[in-house]
User: Fold this.
Amino acid sequence: MTNQQVTIYGTAWCSDCKRAVRVLDQHNLDYNYINIEQDEAARQYVEEVNNGNQSVPTIVFFDGSIMVEPSSAKLTEKLVSLQLITIS
Assistant:
């Protein structure tokens, strides 16, 4: 388990958000999940970083990088690159 922070901006109905959370859960990673339908500031942030769109999941990593709607493979690749997980 890691103390490095990952934040997922999503919605309750978003299947891609659920998939991204599943990837993080499979690797026992700590993350902060924010529902943009319940948090106005979070919704505005997502729109700001996505050219006015409410694209979810928008995932923000501790190094400041952002992924939007990544596939499970791309998300896993990113987690490896940040040394949050190892793949054997």
Remarks:
- The chain has a mean pLDDT of 94.
- The radius of gyration is 12 Å.
